[in-house]
TrEMBL record:
Parts forming coiled coils: none
Compartment(s): Cell membrane
InterPro entries found in the cross-reference section: GPCR_Rhodpsn, GPCR_Rhodpsn_7TM, Olfact_rcpt
Span of domain G-protein coupled receptors family 1 profile: 41-289
Mode of membrane association: Multi-pass membrane protein
Organism expressing this protein natively: Lynx canadensis (Canada lynx)
Keyword annotations from UniProtKB, A to Z: Cell membrane, G-protein coupled receptor, Membrane, Olfaction, Receptor, Sensory transduction, Transducer, Transmembrane, Transmembrane helix
Protein name: Olfactory receptor
Length: 318
């Protein structure tokens, strides 16, 4: 096939996760619940941070941006996947496929940079507590968040342009979404250059933030060990535990998907890992940050108390 065939390709067929109808219905129910938890949980995090002035700190600012990114990431793939579970023909228009790959890759890349910025924030908070507010001022936080999103979108734009300029041999994607590696398998030319670009992108987008996280936490651990009181060490560790949990999940799945040797990977394994990263991780992020965070839980209890009081007053007045 020539390049002109790729230009006029109108749609792609997604094989999805299963061809069994009963399995697809069960997966639809499961992922619908997970999707609702993801959207509502992350929206609740943003709402709580917005409503409580005590949460207007750099750490919670970055957490609200992370929740926004998770909502966008989930919406880029999950709604279409839910529709396809109940559809006989699992097709996606060409331009929708391009947009899906661009948005999901941009959000995923931005999340890695954000986790690096959040690690730097925790480093300053633990290692330089007296200068924390002076260093992590509003302008720097906004610049870091903007830079993380900008870098994510630039990486995604570069990858999308390179991938969709390639001639494609067929339009059947062995995946539940238009994922980068799955689309590359459709090409009918040598993709050695693209593999090099994926590797370079992986180093810049995944490994650089990962090294920043490791460096930050090495300094944090060293600082915590110098704290004399056990209570102080425990408090310092609690401020980092939630972030470290999320970092382990995100970087672990990404390194497994994009940075291991291609000979050791398979389409089915990549689908499972991508599913974990697209559905499970965005759902767990608000749960981890809320359940392990006393300030967020305290704000949630106060909000629920106010709503309960207003409901009681309305009932009495009626």
């Amino acid at each position: 096939m020539g390049r002109e065939n790729q230009t006029w390709m109108s749609e792609f067929i997604l094989l999805g996760l299963s061809r069994c109808w009963n399995t697809q219905v069960s997966l639809f129910v499961l992922f619908l619940v997970m999707y609702l938890v993801t959207v509502l949980g992350n929206f609740l995090i943003i709402l709580l941070i917005r409503l409580d002035s005590r949460l207007h700190t750099p750490m919670y600012f970055f957490l609200s941006v992370l929740s926004f990114v998770d909502i966008c990431y989930a919406n880029s793939t999950v709604p279409q996947m839910l529709v396809h579970f109940l559809s006989a023909r699992k097709s996606i228009p060409f331009h929708s496929c391009v947009l899906q790959l661009f948005i999901s890759l941009a959000m995923g890349s931005s999340e890695f940079f954000l986790l690096g910025a959040m690690a730097y924030d925790r480093y300053v908070a633990v290692c330089h507590p007296l200068h924390y507010t002076a260093i992590m001022h509003g302008g720097l936080c906004l610049a870091l968040a903007t830079g993380c999103l900008g870098a994510g979108f630039m990486n995604s734009l570069m990858q999308a342009v390179i991938i969709f300029q390639l001639p494609l041999c067929h339009n059947v994607i062995n995946h539940f979404a238009c994922e980068m590696l799955a689309v590359l398998r459709l090409t009918c030319v040598d993709i050695s250059f693209n593999k090099v670009m994926v590797a370079i992108s992986g180093v810049l987008v995944i490994m650089l933030p990962c090294f920043l996280v490791l460096f930050s936490y090495a300094r944090i651990v060293a600082a915590i060990l110098h704290i004399r009181s056990a209570q102080g060490r425990c408090k310092a560790f609690e401020t980092c535990a939630s972030h470290l949990t999320v970092v382990s999940m995100c970087f672990g799945t990404a390194i497994f998907t994009y940075l291991r040797p291609s000979a050791g990977s398979s389409a089915e394994q990549e689908k499972m890992v991508a599913l974990f990263y697209a559905v499970v991780t965005p759902m767990l992020n608000p749960l981890i940050y809320s359940l392990r965070n006393k300030e967020v839980m305290s704000t949630l209890r106060r909000l629920l108390g106010k709503l309960s009081e207003k409901s009681r007053l309305l009932t009495v007045s009626c």
